[in-house]
Every structure is written in structure tokens, then in C-alpha cells.
Automatic annotation (TrEMBL):
Native source organism of the sequence: Orchesella dallaii
Domain SSD: 443-567
Compartments in which it is found: Membrane
Entry protein name: SSD domain-containing protein
InterPro entries in alphabetical order: HMGCR/SNAP/NPC1-like_SSD (IPR053958), SSD (IPR000731)
UniProt-listed Pfam families: Sterol-sensing (PF12349)
The keyword Transmembrane appears for this protein: yes
Topology in the lipid bilayer: Multi-pass membrane protein
Sequence similarity: Belongs to the patched family.
Chain ranges passing through the membrane: 57-76, 410-432, 444-467, 479-496, 517-536, 542-564, 673-693, 957-978, 985-1005, 1017-1039, 1051-1073, 1079-1110
Chain segments carrying region Disordered: 1128-1214, 1249-1306
Feature: compositional bias, Polar residues: 1173-1183, 1198-1212
Key words, A-Z: Glycoprotein, Membrane, Transmembrane, Transmembrane helix
PROSITE patterns the record matches: SSD
């Protein structure tokens, strides 16, 4: 016959049985909660039963399955590009980035930068001296001279740099001179001195007939060159108009004497020109005063380098001049990959190569890498390295160093795994609170088995994530796997605790704990996965991978670990022993003797229901069998005279209290001041957390996500400290009528220029936008037209020979109509104005004028960095050209307006203050763009600050959305899983919300920048406390009785392993510390450790108080108002007869030992309707046997039935009974340490009676003993408490109830 559960808490052990109490009207409670738990128990019981019977097979299949999933690890895809990791991949920003990339081909700025700072112990702490600048020159000059060989072509800086646009002429020697002489654009403090010309080349000096020596920028005087070239051109009959255009071009650009009149850093340099103001001087130049106003490039009108771009950390005197500086910076502007591809697409150098944009990017990356390597090599020079630091930066180098740090290291990985395993062993052994006496070696073996399964499950989770094509990043590789192992410990510690504390099989373990474990895993995974709603790819990948790792490893533990534990314990024949042991000593003597000659010695001990059997015949012959706990108790002895001694063996109370910390904690819960103190403490904690939240600051310094002490990290650190300058662009899009909305564009530029962060020139103004430069050019031509019209050089029929080149160009522009069919109208002269009195360019011919401006004033056009798309049509003005038609450019779809912004960086300003200022101007610029977009101007900002900081503008909304959706989904799941009751859901959600407040307050007090990653860590912390709270709340709902009893029992059932797992997570977080990444320490080591500690405190302090306040209803409650724990017995159902046995109508007076296998009457009688107080399900049965074959015995109304011994079934019997001759049915349960020892002996039959609340005894010395003990008489406890160790036997009208004091009877 299938045995019934013998648990004292039916809702905990067998929810279907508990549900029968409600359906039959014997009790009340939550049908839904019991049905959901019962269905899960039924399915999990099948899994546990299969796992228990086929333990080896389950372990083998589980390991093979997990190993197959691990194969997916080879498909891992690493994402190591910071731009793609931390740039939102959805929403407004993604649309803007895609628009820029699609229309202009740009993805980011491509610049090569070099920063020089003094050593901490250097003699010259300021960089404003000649020695520092000369060292800067040497390093930069050598680094720029590097070349790379790729695709059978040698690439140098001249091939890759951005060079100023120059006009094209039809004079060959002039075009060649301009092509070779015009240098790359380099923003450097050396441009203030003649020495800056050494960077401009050309690499191969130019030989020009009529000039003495080769021409380089160190000896080039552009005005003198133009004059000599003009004379040579006249001698060669070159048209004078070409030189006129060239002269006008140089004049507009401010190109005069070049670098010949600038001071020399070394006045005694033999190459220093005689025109230098300090040639031959004995003292070096005053570098500080020269650099105070910035520097000018070779085209001063369009190349002014503000001081913020070239000197860092300046200290000003009262007059505003710079007196000290902490660093120098030079920037080389390179072409983007798309620009490089377009530039060389149709050149002869690459005819043999299938030239693509990817190859152009490879060329750029290779040269930048070579540049950085050269700077590193030069910076370690013995003399130079003692005085200065040199840092270089390349985007490709940054991605490379992050990729290198993201690679898995077997050494560090092994060390961390060993650290987690050792921590798990330490926590599992030294903080174990179970009352099992299993030796430490077996405990370590069980813990190692759990960690091994967790490790294998985590690896399988990695394979699953890789198969789902979720990209991995540095956190996924360096942090998440080890953290996932510790998170899975929440599962295996609970399963281990169940095995050690109860010696239960896999089926029983999964039935009791499986439902709450699965619910906790589901809720925890949902909270962790909620971070995937953030639009940040790094956080999304981390959230999904964390949920997958936790789910896979936890499910593996639920299925495999119980089978492993059962098999492990079975192989070693281990049975646990508790602090409290109740035993029945059965002493047998010789055939003729009684008890006088017998000796009693313990043979076997069980936890809670512990029975010690001693059988001695003539001092030698012993027969005994091991007694399994709870539902597996059985005993067999020879049918001789037996003395039965029922004892409650208990340690002293002090010993029990010191032996288990759980007892101390449970006693603390009963302290009357506990709840009040906890409430006051948490009110204070919430106030402190609120104050911390007011200190929250948004942001994540880029240096936190770059490996520490790499050259890129050092550069970014120095740049953030000394050069907090950011280049941003305002991008105007298509679907905008540029010609007719010029005033709106000018108004937008004025508004942007008024921002306090915008860098201004030495006159207090800002660089003009492209439309302003375009208008200025037209206004100058209009002035020339008006002047020469009055002089008669220009007229309606054309122009005279006296007309200038600019006058002829102005005349051609004035006759343009802008219509394709009728492009020229001479009748417009002279009334037609290129620019009207309001400063608006002629809208009808706007795109015609744009063509002329872009190609005839290229240096001005290029200096605006407008990057107009589509590019203006090609048309170069020639005074000899009589064709009046000028091609019309296509309407603008893309245009940029550039700004340089600087945070208000003064010496001593903290980095977080800079980030707050970055966020302030990002927010302000976004606001301005939004306002003008509402007025019809489609504009948006673009640049590094917006790419990385724009996410923080929507972070509060996104965080609220993520937390709200996660909490809502969890609430629904909990509501349906916990019996449609709001109170247990309220307990769990209240703990979750308070934990999130605590974490947010800690983030504020610690000064950690708030971004999507700390929010995800907060969700992880919430998942920890929610998982543990779910275990306790589910156990609380399964336990009847008073709140104090339910709290204590629920914590004893699941609390200790949850505490162990939280401590292990804290230790694991400390193990994860990595000196390479700051964010790993601040976001994982620090925040995860604090989150687990907060969860631990909340579980120990807050959860008990919330349970006492909200009082979630028990799922099974008796109908008695006086004693809600009282349960009426279930009416037994008849059990069909087997064999030839017949039901007896009266009470049988004896039993025979005859009969065969089919005559056994074990299953012929329904279980008697008696029940232990506190366990209605475990006592509704008993076993009888009839070996006589003719009739069977019916249950008595007043005494226990006697059952004959069944030696043949001794080895297989499963019950909580002792089979003796005469048969005695003994079922015991223990209490806490305060119990009473009762010894009863009988030779023939034992009959025990116990009342519910009082004690009385009646004994028949010849045949029966009736015993009941009151705790008030024996142990000094409350009189309303029944004795532990009491026995109850009654007829169908007898009743049972739960004990007021809890008893752990597993």
C-alpha cells in the first residue's frame, strides 16, 4: 500500500492532501494556492522519484546535456567597441547616427592626438617653456614620419591627413606647387613659433626655377613666392588673371609671410630666419605670453587655435594671461574612411587593388597603430622619460586594448573559480546550521558536487547565450560567469540543507522545496532580464546573459543535485543526527529473564523521530535493522520478551542554543522589542537612503570602462583633467527650404553661440557658420560689383579689360536666375542684389551662388567644416571664359555647423563636476534643437558628448519604465502563484522596493555615477532578496498557527541556506575585484557586495516584521475559532480487500502467525481516523497483519491494535512504526529542547492515550499502559502546551490539531 505523508504540515509536504481538508469541509484556506502548489508537487515528485531511482542515469544524462550545451561557447561573439557597447541602439540617437552615416559617411571623428605632461617630480612643473615645446616638437615630428606598407602601397601622413582645399588653375606649375606645398592641418602650440613650420614639410623639397635652394615651409615666404612666380608667369606669357585670383585667395586666407616672422624657440638655431623677432637673442622667448591668445596656422584667417585646444590646465593672472599650464596637446586631423576611399578611388596608385571603404579603414587603423607605437617608443627615452610624459590616442587603439582585456584568461579564470569553490566550502561547512552529524569530508563532497554542477550549468548557459547570438563583452567574460555560480548557490544550499537536515530522498526534497525554488528562479530571472529593456547594448547583453546563466544553472541543480546527494549519501550509508533526539529503547533479555539482566546500548539514532533499538540475547546475539527517518521507519526483532523504553533524549538548553545560530535568531524574533527596534531602524535607514538619492549624479566616466594604466587610459585621464574640450556639430537635414529660411538658420546659430560653454576667439566672438561665410563672400563681391559698375568697368553688355577677376565673377553671379530653363537674365542688372539689405542671400539663385562659392573660395568653404551633402557642383571661374552659365547645385540634404565646447575647468575641479557640466550642455543643446525643430528647422546635435551622454537624459524615464514593468510582471506572477492573495505579494514587493531604495542611496553616498549599469546591478540585488523572501513567504503560508510559530518554522525550513548563499555572493563579489577596470570594482565588487549585504539584513530583520504586520493567511487553517491550528480528521475511504482476507465485524482478540503471501491483511483495513496534534496526514494510517488466513482484525475504538511480526518484510517495511510481538504502533515527534523524558515498558501490549490540553493516565499493568504528560508539570513551560513525545490513539471520532509550539519533524 502506498504510504501517506507523515509531515506535521500538510500544506508544506503534500498540498493535495491539504486541499482535501478544505474540499471536505474540515478546514479552510486557499484552494488556489494549494492547487498550484499541489500540481507542482505532483510533477516535481515524479521528477524526484525518477531521479532517486535512477540517480546515476540522471547524473550522466544531466552532465552530457550540459556538456552539449557548452559546445555553443565556440560561437561566442565578442563586442569590444566602446562606441557600439555604450551607444543606445534604439530611439532618437540611433536614428540620428544612422542618418549621419548614410548621408555623409561619417561615423566618428578621426584625429590623432598627442598630449605631453610633466613628471610629478620634474624640475619644470609648468609646460610653458622652450624645453618642453622642443621635446614636443621632436616626438611629434618623428611620430608623424612613420609609414605603413599595405596593398603594395606605402602610406604616409600626407596621404591620410585632412588638407586645406585649394583652388585649381589651368597653369601646370602653379597647380603642382600648391599640391605639394599645402600642408596637413595640425592643431599645435608649435604654430606660435617658427619651429612649427618643421611639421609642415613638404617631405620632398620643391625645386622652382629662379629660386635659390629647395622650398620648404621653414624657408617659405608665400608673398615673395607669389611675386616671383608672377614675374616668371609674365615672362612666360601666363595670363595675369591667374595670379590675380591666386593673390586674392592668399589675401582672403591671410597667408602672408608664413612662419618667417614668428619667434624661434631656440634663437641660436642656425636655420632660424633672420626675419624672426628673436633671432640671435640670448634669452628664450616668453612662451606663456605668446600662447595666451592662442596660435595661428599657415592660413591665419581660417586657422586660429584657441588656447583651450593647445594648452591644458592653464593658470591665469589678474590680467587674464596664462602664467602656468599643466600640459600641451597637438592634434592631427585625418580623413575618415569614407573620405579616404573617395579620395583614392580613381587614382592610378590603386588601380591594381579592388579599393573599398573597409580597406581604407584598414589603412587608417594600421597607420594610427604605428603612430601610437612610435610615441610609446620615444617616450621611454632615458633623458626624455625623466622629465615628461607623452600620451597618444587612437580610436582603433582604444578598441584594441578593450578587446585584449575582454579575452578569457585561463589563469585568472581558474583562480576565481577556485576562490568561489573555497568560499562555498567555507560557507557550507562553517556556517552550516543543520543538525546533522555528517562528517566534514562528506559535507565538503556535497558542496563540491553542487559547485561543480553550478559551474557546468554556468558554462552551459554561456553556450546557450552564444547560440542565441547574444554578444559578449568584458563584463560577460570577466564577471558574470563567476557571479552566476554564486547566484546558483541559492538553489543548491537549500537542496543541501534539506538533504542534511532530513535525510529525505530526492522526491521528498523536490516536493517540499521545488515549487518555491522554481518560483524564486522565475522571479529572480525576470528581474535580472528586465535590464534588457535599456537601449544600451552592453547592459542588454549583460541582463539577458545573467538571466540565462541563472536559469540554466539553477534548473540543472534542481534536477541533478538531489540525485547526486541521494546517491552520495546512500553509498556512504549516512543518517543524520540532531541536537534533540527522541528515542525508544527496546531492551530484550534472555528467554527466562526479564529486564533485570538486560543491558541497554544505543544502536541507531535518527533526527527528530529518533528510535534507538537495543536487542541483546545472552549478551551476544543482536538483531537490528537501520531505521530511516520519517516515512521509512521500520524495526524487526525476535519475538522474545522485550522491554520497550520510550525516551526523549535532549541536550541541555544552553548546549542547544550555542550549537545552532538559528536558535539564537529564532529566540531573537520572540523578543518583544524586536519589531519596534527594527521599524525605527528602517525608518532611519530610509531617511539616510533618501538623502543619498539626492546626491545621485548621472554619468559614467569613459576612463572607468578602459583598462587602467594603458596608454589610452592615461591619455583619457590627462585629457579629462587638462583638456575638457568637445567638438560638436549641429546637423541640419533635408526637407528644409534653406534659401527661404536663412534667417531661421542665423537665429539658431546665434542661440547656440550664446551658450556659456562655447569657446570664443580672442575677440570674444565665435567662428562663423557656413552660411555666414557664404554671405560674407557674396557681400564682398557685391561691393566689387557696385564699385566697378560705377567706374564703368562693368556694364550690361559685359565688362572691359580693366575689370577685375572678382568684378567679372560678381557680374556673372548677378545675371543668374536660378531657373534651369532660363538660367541667365542680363536685364536684372544692376538692380539685382546678391544679398539684400536684410542680409538674405538671393533665394532664387541660392544654389548657383553655392556652386561658385565652394569652388572659388575653397579655403573658406573648407574652414567652415560644413560638409554639405550633396557636394556643390564643380565650377571654377576664369575671367577669359565668356560662358555665363553656372551649374546649379542640388538642394542641401545635410549640413553641419561646428562648435567647440568646454566645461568650466579650473584647477582642482572634480571629474564629477565636469560630467555634470557635460550633461548640462547636452541637455541645453537638445532643448535648443527641439525648440527650433518645432519652428520648422530639422536639426539635431552630433558628437562624442551626445553619443555617450544623451542616454542620461532619458535614463530616469527608462529606469522607471524598467522597474515598473518588472515589478508589474512579478506582481502578476506572484498573485497567481500565491493563491490570489495580496498580502504575501505585498510582503515580497515591499522588501523589493526598500532594497532598491537602499541600493540607490548607497550609490549616491558612494559617488558612483548613475547609469543603466548600476540600475541593472540594483535589479540583481532585488532579485537576491526577492528569491530569499519568496522561499520564506511560501513556507510561512504553508505553516498554520500563530505568527511567531509560523515565522520560526518557516525560517528553520529555508532561512539558513538562504543566509549562506547571500554570504557566498558577498564573498564572490570581493573575489571579482579587478584592478584593470574601475567600473568592475565600483559596479560589481562594491555594489553587488552591498546589495547582498542589504538583502541579508532585510531577510533577517525586515521580512519577519512584515510577516507580523501583514500576516499572510495560511493556506490551511482549522475551523476552530479558539484554536485555528486545530484540524478535524479526514473521513477515511475504504480500501479494497486483497486475497481471501475478510473484514471482521468485532474486535479481534489475537492473531496467528500462519498464512501465506496472499493472506497478509496490511491493506485490508482503512487507516484509523486518529491524528497527531500538528500532523493530520502522517497519522491517518496504521498497519495490521493477519497471518492466520481466516479473518482479519478491525480497529479498536479504545486501544492500539496489535500486529504480528512480519520477519519476511522487515527489510522492506516503510513506516513510522515499531513492529513487535505483540505488535506496537509507535509514531513520535520531537519539540525544541524543552521536552520531558518518559519511560514506559511492557511485555505484551502498549496502549498510549493523550488528551489535547490536559493530561490524565490510566494503566493496566497486565496488558496496557495509558500515558499522557503535561509540559507544565515536567518542564515548567506553559500549561496549554502538550507534551512532546505524547501518543494519540482513538476511534473515528477522535480529533487532532497542530501543536501551539512548532516542532521540526522532517
Amino acid at each position: 500500500m502506498k504510504q501517506r505523508s507523515s509531515e506535521p504540515y500538510p500544506a508544506w509536504a503534500d498540498a493535495h492532501l491539504a486541499l482535501k481538508y478544505i474540499t471536505k469541509g474540515k478546514a479552510r484556506g486557499s484552494k488556489v494556492g494549494l492547487w498550484v502548489r499541489g500540481e507542482s508537487q505532483r510533477r516535481l515528485g515524479h521528477v524526484g522519484k525518477w531521479a532517486g531511482r535512477r540517480g546515476g542515469l540522471v547524473i550522466f544524462v544531466g552532465i552530457v546535456s550540459l556538456a552539449l550545451l557548452c559546445v555553443g561557447i565556440q560561437n561566442i561573439r565578442l563586442d569590444t567597441t566602446l562606441a557600439s557597447l555604450w551607444t543606445p541602439d534604439s530611439g532618437r540617437l540611433l536614428h540620428e547616427l544612422n542618418y549621419v552615416s548614410k548621408v555623409s559617411g561619417l561615423t566618428t571623428d578621426t584625429n590623432e592626438m598627442l598630449i605631453q605632461t610633466p613628471k610629478a617630480n620634474a624640475h619644470h612643473s609648468s609646460m610653458l617653456n622652450s624645453k618642453a615645446l622642443l621635446e614636443h616638437l621632436q616626438v611629434l615630428q618623428k611620430a608623424l614620419s612613420v609609414t605603413v606598407d599595405l596593398y603594395d602601397v606605402t602610406w604616409n601622413m600626407k596621404d591620410l591627413c585632412y588638407s586645406a582645399n585649394i583652388p585649381t588653375f589651368d597653369v601646370q606649375f602653379i597647380d603642382q606647387i600648391f599640391e605639394k606645398v599645402f600642408p596637413c592641418v595640425i592643431i599645435t602650440p608649435l604654430d606660435c613659433f617658427w619651429d612649427g613650420a618643421k611639421l609642415l614639410g613638404p617631405d620632398f623639397p620643391i625645386q622652382i626655377p629662379g629660386f635659390r635652394g629647395p622650398i620648404k615651409w621653414t624657408n617659405l615666404n608665400p608673398q615673395e613666392l607669389l611675386m616671383k612666380a608672377r614675374l616668371a608667369g609674365q615672362a612666360g606669357e601666363t595670363h595675369i588673371g591667374v595670379f590675380e585670383i591666386l593673390e586674392g585667395f592668399m589675401k582672403r586666407a591671410g597667408i602672408g609671410t608664413g612662419y618667417q616672422e614668428k619667434p624661434c624657440l631656440d634663437p641660436k638655431d642656425p636655420d632660424c630666419p633672420i626675419t624672426a623677432p628673436n633671432k640671435g637673442a640670448e634669452t628664450p622667448p616668453d612662451v606663456a605670453s605668446i600662447l595666451s591668445q592662442g596660435c595661428y596656422g599657415f592660413a591665419p584667417r581660417f586657422m586660429h587655435w584657441a588656447p583651450d585646444l593647445i594648452i591644458g590646465g592653464p593658470v591665469h593672472n589678474k590680467s587674464g594671461h596664462v602664467v602656468r599650464a599643466g600640459g600641451l596637446m597637438s592634434t592631427v586631423q585625418l580623413m575618415s574612411s569614407s573620405e579616404l576611399y573617395e579620395f583614392f578611388r580613381e587614382t592610378w596608385r590603386l588601380n591594381h587593388v579592388e579599393w573599398t571603404e573597409a580597406k581604407a579603414q584598414a589603412v587608417l587603423t594600421s597607420w594610427q597603430t604605428r603612430f601610437a607605437e612610435e610615441v610609446t617608443h620615444l617616450s621611454v627615452d632615458e633623458d626624455r622619460s625623466h622629465q615628461f610624459n607623452f600620451y597618444s590616442f587612437t580610436p582603433s587603439g582604444l578598441d584594441s586594448v578593450v578587446e585584449s582585456a575582454s579575452q578569457f584568461s585561463w589563469t585568472w579564470g581558474g583562480i576565481r573559480v577556485v576562490g568561489v569553490v573555497l568560499s562555498a566550502i567555507f560557507v557550507g561547512h562553517f556556517l552550516d546550521s543543520s543538525e546533522s552529524t555528517i562528517n566534514w569530508k562528506c559535507r565538503v563532497g556535497l558542496v563540491l558536487g553542487g559547485t561543480a554542477i553550478a559551474l557546468l550549468g554556468t558554462a552551459a548557459g554561456c553556450g546557450v547565450a552564444a547560440l542565441l547570438k547574444i554578444p559578449f563583452n568584458v563584463a560577460s567574460v570577466q564577471v558574470l560567469p563567476y557571479l552566476s555560480m554564486s547566484l546558483a548557490s541559492q538553489v543548491f544550499y537549500i537542496l543541501l540543507y534539506s538533504q542534511l537536515n532530513t535525510s529525505a530522498d530526492a522526491k521528498t526534497t523536490l516536493k517540499k522545496y521545488g515549487f518555491s525554488l522554481l518560483l524564486g528562479i522565475c522571479i529572480a530571472s525576470l528581474f535580472i532580464a528586465a535590464g534588457a529593456l535599456f537601449p544600451i547594448p552592453a547592459v542588454r547583453s549583460l541582463a539577458l546573459q545573467g538571466a540565462i546563466f541563472l536559469a540554466v544553472s539553477s534548473l540543472a541543480l534542481i534536477v541533478v543535485y538531489p540525485a547526486f546527494c541521494q546517491l552520495f549519501l546512500k553509498k556512504r550509508k549516512i543518517v543524520g543526527t540532531g541536537c534533540n533526539s527522541q528515542s525508544v529503547n527496546i531492551n530484550t533479555g534472555g528467554r527466562n529473564g526479564g529486564t533485570n539482566g538486560s543491558r541497554s546500548a544505543p544502536m541507531n539514532t535518527l533526527k527528530n523521530n529518533n528510535i534507538t533499538l537495543n536487542n541483546e540475547k545472552n549478551g551476544k546475539d543482536k538483531q537490528y535493522c537501520n531505521l530511516l527517518n520519517n516515512e521509512k521507519n521500520a524495526a524487526c526483532l525476535k519475538p522474545d520478551d522485550i522491554d520497550i523504553e520510550i525516551t526523549n533524549e535532549e541536550d541541555e538548553p544552553d548546549k542547544c542554543l550555542t550549537r545552532s545560530w538559528t536558535t539564537l535568531y529564532v529566540n531573537l524574533l520572540s523578543w518583544k522589542w524586536f519589531s519596534g527596534i527594527v521599524v525605527m531602524l528602517y525608518l532611519l535607514w530610509i531617511v539616510i537612503s533618501g538623502l543619498g538619492m539626492t546626491r545621485l549624479r548621472l554619468g559614467l566616466p569613459i576612463t572607468d570602462v578602459v583598462p587602467s594604466h594603458s596608454s589610452e587610459w592615461e591619455f583619457l585621464t590627462a585629457q579629462g583633467k587638462l583638456f575638457p574640450v568637445y567638438h560638436i556639430r549641429a546637423v541640419t537635414k533635408s526637407n528644409f527650404d534653406y534659401p527661404n529660411n536663412q534667417k531661421l538658420l542665423h537665429k539658431f546659430h546665434e542661440t547656440m553661440s550664446s551658450l556659456p560653454w562655447v569657446i570664443r576667439d580672442d575677440n570674444g566672438g565665435v567662428p562663423p557658420m557656413w552660411l555666414s561665410v557664404f554671405r560674407s563672400w557674396l557681400l564682398r563681391l557685391q561691393a566689387v560689383l557696385d564699385k566697378e559698375w560705377k567706374l564703368g568697368h562693368l556694364h550690361k553688355e559685359g565688362w572691359t579689360d580693366s575689370a577685375s577677376a572678382d568684378g567679372i565673377l560678381a557680374w556673372k553671379l548677378a545675371v543668374q536666375t536660378g531657373h534651369v530653363d532660363h538660367p541667365v537674365d542680363i536685364t536684372q542688372l544692376p538692380s539685382n542684389r546678391l544679398v539684400d539689405s536684410e542680409g538674405v542671400i538671393n533665394s532664387r539663385a541660392f544654389y548657383v551662388y553655392l556652386t561658385a562659392w565652394a569652388w572659388n573660395d575653397p579655403l573658406a568653404y573648407g574652414s567652415t567644416a560644413s560638409n554639405l551633402k550633396p557636394e556643390p557642383r564643380n565650377w571654377v571661374h576664369s575671367p577669359e571664359d565668356k560662358d555665363l552659365k553656372i551649374p546649379k547645385s542640388a538642394p542641401i540634404k545635410y549640413a553641419e555647423i561646428s562648435y567647440l565646447l568646454r566645461t568650466s575647468k579650473e584647477d582642482g575641479t572634480q571629474e564629477e563636476d565636469q560630467e555634470s557640466q557635460i550633461l548640462a550642455f547636452v541637455k541645453e543643446v537638445r532643448s535648443i534643437c527641439g525648440k527650433f525643430e518645432a519652428r520648422g528647422l530639422p536639426v539635431f546635435p552630433w558628437g562624442i558628448p551626445f553619443r555617450f551622454y544623451d542616454q542620461y537624459l532619458t535614463l530616469p524615464i527608462n529606469s522607471g519604465l524598467v522597474l515598473g514593468l518588472a515589478t508589474g510582471a512579478v506582481s502578476v506572477i506572484l498573485f497567481f502563484s500565491l493563491g490570489f492573495s495580496l498580502r504575501p505579494v505585498g510582503v515580497i514587493l515591499t522588501v523589493a522596493v526598500i532594497t532598491m531604495l537602499q541600493i540607490a542611496g548607497a550609490i549616491g553616498w558612494l559617488g558612483v555615477g548613475l547609469n543603466a549599469l548600476p540600475v541593472e546591478i540594483g535589479l540583481l540585488g532585488v532579485s537576491l532578496v526577492v528569491f530569499t523572501t519568496v522561499q520564506i513567504v511560501v513556507a510561512f503560508c504553508c505553516i498554520p498557527g500563530s505568527v511567531s510559530v509560523r515565522r520560526a518554522v518557516s525560517f528553520r525550513l529555508v532561512g539558513p541556506p538562504c543566509v549562506q548563499s547571500l554570504i557566498l555572493i558577498t564573498l564572490t563579489a570581493l573575489i571579482l575585484y579587478s584592478p584593470e577596470f574601475t567600473f568592475i570594482f565600483t559596479h560589481f565588487t562594491l555594489l553587488v557586495a552591498l546589495s547582498s549585504l542589504f538583502s541579508l539584513l532585510n531577510v533577517l530583520l525586515l521580512v519577519p516584521v512584515l510577516l507580523a504586520v501583514l500576516k499572510p493567511q495560511s493556506w490551511l487553517v482549522g475551523l476552530s475559532h479558539e484554536d485555528p491550528a486545530y484540524l478535524q480528521p479526514l473521513t477515511p475511504s475504504p480500501i479494497p480487500k486483497r486475497g481471501s482476507s475478510s473484514r471482521s465485524g468485532g474486535r479481534s482478540s489475537g492473531s496467528s502467525r500462519t498464512g501465506g503471501k496472499n493472506s497478509s491483511s496490511r491493506g485490508n483495513y482503512p487507516p484509523p481516523p486518529y491524528s497527531f496534534r500538528g500532523s493530520s496526514s502522517r497519522n491517518n494510517y496504521y498497519h495490521g497483519s493477519n497471518r492466520g488466513g481466516g479473518h482479519s482484525r478491525a480497529p479498536s475504538e479504545h486501544s492500539l491494535s496489535t500486529i504480528t511480526e512480519e520477519p519476511s518484510s522487515c527489510a522492506t517495511r516503510r513506516s513510522a512504526e515499531i513492529v513487535v510481538q505483540p505488535q506496537v504502533v509507535v509514531e513520535t515527534f520531537d519539540r525544541d529542547c524543552n521536552t520531558t523524558t518518559t519511560k514506559v515498558s511492557a511485555k505484551l501490549k502498549v496502549e498510549v492515550h493523550s488528551s489535547m490540553h490536559s493530561s490524565s493516565s490510566n494503566s493496566n499493568p497486565q496488558s496496557s499502559v495509558n500515558t499522557s504528560t503535561n509540559m507544565s508539570d515536567n518542564s515548567g513551560t506553559s500549561a496549554s502546551t502538550s507534551s512532546s513525545g505524547s501518543f494519540t490513539s482513538s476511534s473515528a471520532s477522535s480529533t487532532s490539531s497542530y501543536n501551539e509550539k512548532f516542532s521540526v519533524d522532517d
